[in-house]
Design brief:
The protein is built from two helices and four strands, in the order E-H-E-E-E-H. It has about 90 residues and is of the alpha+beta class. Strands 1-4 form a two-stranded antiparallel sheet. A two-stranded antiparallel ribbon has the order 2-3. A hairpin with a 4-residue loop joins strand 2 and strand 3.
Length: about 90
C-alpha cells in the first residue's frame, strides 16, 4: 500500500509533508505534490502534516478522487523529487 496526494493539494502545494517523509517519495510540479507509490513506505508521517487533508492511503481515497491513484504513479515517474520545504502556493 501507499499514500496518495489528491485534489485538495492542487493549487496549495504545501510542502510540510516533505520534511517528515523518511522515504523521500514526494515529487513536485507547478501546482501540486505527488507520491511515488513504489517508494512510499506507508509510515503515515505525511498525513497529519497536510493542512488541506489531501493525503490518503490508496485504499481509503474517496471515490471521487480514485483517479489520483494512477495520476500519482504517472506524475512521480515524470517529475523531480523534492527534499525540502518550499513556500506553499496559497
Amino acid at each position: 500500500m501507499a499514500h496518495v496526494v489528491t485534489e485538495p493539494c492542487i493549487g496549495c502545494r504545501n510542502t510540510a509533508c516533505v520534511e517528515v517523509c523518511p522515504a523521500e517519495c514526494f515529487h513536485i510540479d507547478e501546482q501540486s505534490l505527488w507520491i511515488d507509490p513504489e517508494e512510499c513506505i506507508d509510515c503515515k508521517a505525511c498525513v497529519p502534516e497536510c493542512p488541506v487533508d489531501a493525503i490518503f492511503l490508496d485504499v481509503d481515497v474517496p471515490e471521487k478522487w480514485t483517479h489520483f491513484i494512477k495520476l500519482n504513479e504517472e506524475k512521480a515517474e515524470a517529475l523531480p523529487l523534492i527534499f525540502e520545504r518550499k513556500e506553499p502556493l496559497s
